[in-house]
Amino acid sequence: MKNVRAFENAKKRALELVGKMTVEEAASQLRYDSPAIERLGIPAYNWWNESLHGLARNGITTVFPQAIALAASFDEKLIFDVADITSTETRAKYNAFSKLGDRDIYKGLTMWAPNINIFRDPRWGRGQETYGEDPFLTATLGKAFVKGLQGDNDVMKAAACAKHFAVHSGPEGVRHEFNADVNAFDHEDTYLYAFEELIKEADVEGVMGAYNRVNGEPACASDHLMGKLHEWGFAGYFVSDCWAINDFHAHHMVTANAVESAAMALNAGCDVNCGCCYVNLLTALEQGLTTEEKIREAAVHLFTTRYKLGMLDETTPYDDIPYTVCACDEHKQKSYEASQKAIVLLENNGILPLDKSKLSTIAVIGPTAASTAVLEGNYNGTSDTYHTFLDGIKESFGGRVLYSEGCHLFKDRVSVLAQPDDRLSEAYTVASLADVVILCLGLDATIEGEEGDTGNEFAAGDKIDLRLPESQRKLIECVKKSGKPIITVVAAGSAINTETKFDALIHAWYSGSEGGRALADILFGKVSPSAKLPVTFYDKADALPEFTDYSMKGRTYRYIINNENVLYPFGYGLTYSKVEVTGVEFKDGTAEVSFKNTGSVDTQDVIELYISPDDVRCAENHHLCGFARVNTKAGQSGSVSIAIPERAFTIVLENGERVKCHHFTMYASTHQPDALSCKLNGTDSVIIEVNI
């Protein structure tokens, strides 16, 4: 643990302060909306704050691309910078509002991010909040986020929180009563990996429990999961997901009432309750269901965090951060850079980049073209300026841009009083008059997201299948009849099958407030696309295992057999050039990878390293063990050093035991080593044998 002295000092001060409290006062501090204790000089504090991809729900801030889009960058430094800017804006808001006595929800320093659950099933609406399907990628980017958010000072800049612990990734509609049945192998190999890494290597300050049960135990009061935290040396605070403790008696039926639920959670080690159940702690104490020692122990954990944040000090190193940094030009520039690095090019028959000199009229068609919602995603802030896809294209292109909404995002008409398909005539007309069509399709957080959020029309925020809504499928057929070249841009937080071949296909995710500018840069060749898929794109949802099946068999690139049902593999993404790995050497835990840009365009690209143990006990395919984003000019050769963690040279046995192996095959390229990836990219992997 870094800053050990600062931690010990904070804990000592917390013990002293909590020792001065009555048990009633100590119990009151275990609520997420902790009241003031005026006699001890303790101000009110609200633990509930959000910063998934920029400070959220707190007025005007910098809106970065959604977490899954940031993951597509495969860029640790970028994620660190995003988190650092987020904590800077968090401090700026906190400084200003605290001086005015405003200590409301979303205005504190304990941020409930990142979401490091594994995006195991493309139907999960909240998958957009994660860093994808791979535990190594998730852990690597999660650690960068935590370090950027918390800083490297004796006083934390803001406190990160790893969520949702654990084995949590849908379905949303049954999450409050669902029991995730998971075997020992998948538990260790997939679901716990990133949490352990963030605790051991990034000192994440908080951990949030999940709604569901795990092998019969509520995740917010699981002896097994809490035992893992203790085993890993977790020294921060534990918070329930919001109203999850009420689920103990209301849905999981493991307790009889709220008093028993409060006692069960507290006794297991849940320090703060997001919800209302902990108002029953004193009753639980009176009934002998918990102890004063447990109440005070939890309070000490919470005040240790508050002291580590300098919240009860007269001054901190961050007091001079001015409010004017919020959504400043410098921060927006980083969001713009992030958007460029997040947009994935999936198909290109040579039409991209567009040559402006050969075009007079462009048609921009579709329900996401002028949408700000597809820039925001969910758990988002609010920008003072948005650049939609339509805005970006208009700003960049010197000729005529014709626009048609084309259809509603998912309803059968745009105007309520109109007949179905009321914008198709306009869409066809506009397409017919243009040299090229940019067709903007996709989803937004009103139909893809968290259960209970506004909208989520179909499956509590989950997707029913991988298709676009019917209104958009009709729009595709209509525009195709124009006979004009079509570049399709899909905005979504997950895998989508457009079921149609286009001249080019781009997956833009939820791309941040600057997303339209970044898209235009890619369309017109100002920059080369360079992002990679952090999830597998599948053909059909009904060919996947049952959504409620938490076995990893048949899921994600690590366990799929022969790329069955795969459209675009994990790690795939095209550029306007071609970067080929020319050699790999491995020594002392580091791979030295040489590469060459054999194309005619300067580009960034991502070097990806995969490893496969030569051990019959290994139950998975090759898996990602290292990556690096590189800049390369046309015709240029280069090299990059990539450190490979020791855990890459282990396997997990069926009983959940992690053991070392000694003989491995390592693959290096700008994609996976599987046949489909090599075919789609037009390059092979360099393969070496590694002996440890």
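Second entry:
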Amino acid sequence: MNKRKALISLSDKTGAVELARDLHAFGIDILSTGGTARLLREANVPVVEIGDYTGFPEILDGRVKTLHPKVHAGILARRDLPEHMQAIAHADIPVIELVVVNLYPFAQTIAKPGCTLEEAIENIDIGGPTMVRAAAKNWQHVAIVTDPADYPALITEMKSANGAISLETRFRLARKAFSHTAAYDGAISNYLTATDINGATSTFPEQINMSFAKLQDLRYGENPHQQAAFYRDLRPVPGALSNYRQLQGKELSYNNIADADAAWECVKTFAGPACVIIKHANPCGVAVAAGTAEAYRRAFKTDPTSAFGGIIAFNRDIDLETAEALSQQFMEVLIAPRIAADAAAALAKKTNVRVLEVPIEDGANLYDSKRVGGGLLVQTPDAMNVQISDMRIVTKKQPSPRQTADLLFAWRVAKFVKSNAIVFCGNGMTLGVGAGQMSRVDSARIASIKAENAGLSLKGSVVASDAFFPFRDGVDVVAKAGATAIIQPGGSVRDEEVIAAADEHGVAMVLTGVRHFRH
């Protein structure tokens, strides 16, 4: 009756046998349910099945098994209140001091192709969250463990403290447990409020619940008087910046992370070796080449002034030649899938540069979101990459194969430039970028000025515009600067006037039917 008790009921049984053996070695009786009890029994760990403990068998296909006063009173009784202890003693209910529970795999179930509403409902855990919340509420007397990754530290602490678990550890585990059930219920809410009674789903749920875990506190936000932190999706997105591993350099800042994400998302869209240089959220140089060193040199050439103190990203591993070229430039952050050992040694001389490795994998955020006063704007990501088959030639002059390749390249860059965006390109590199102006013609003028300042000729270049030209003046500016082909969405009421301007200048123009506003 006075023997210590732990309740173990797990969906993810990783490490369960080892944990149970260690607990048994402390003289703790193990209570367990169905599959977990069977696993422990097969591993020769003494275990009492929950139905035998409560005197009430599992019923309703396992829907009811732990929902019993002998379980919950043993968890919830406050040991510091005599009336609580007298009540459970009178009912012959022992205390349970450790609860190890994780929940039915709801998120994994609904992620499977063809998952039905019925399957989703059957994977909504009831008894598990109830035990987790009960134990977490009574953290001053009960330890609750929901993550197998916490087993080793728990056992280490117990071994060093004669089987005891500190108040600090119990509180930390309780906070984690409530976060676990909050994320679990949030996933259920997201699914059900986006699903009708027939199982048809919509893109956006009626209520959206987003769960993130803090990776780190930041020194400050966009400005020193603002506080900031960096959070990551509970289920990390493959290939996303949040999976970074920092090899060297100062702590990342809020602006570093925002700009690094822009650089990384842009560079990942290119199939061949590519380099992207970002300054204040805009690409100031992008190039593709046979190797990373040449891609970097060409990207840097676009706008050396703006590249100073920029964020530089590659979609290929960094070798020594590239590292030595980079070492000549002041940069804030360098990102690549991998940094070769000799390249890392060369970069180590620039101690303040933040060097990040991020695996290249296919994956994307489910939503893009932007906080506004009292609300949240939510959209699907802009994952549209135009192909040759999507291009509609509307001028008398047709683009050459070389121009077509450059138009597609320019279009991919323009997607990552703040609107209004105008991007001059040639031979797989940017030549001038005009970003974020209130009028498109001003962006065109700025892009051509940028090229002139960098000593780059725009003769024979191509131009991408992220949205349609509202008037012919933008076409006049880029043609005068030397552009010979233009890619743009089309859709203006003055499209005929704009196309006529292109014909007048002898410029090829293709329409995509897709715009890429980026605010």
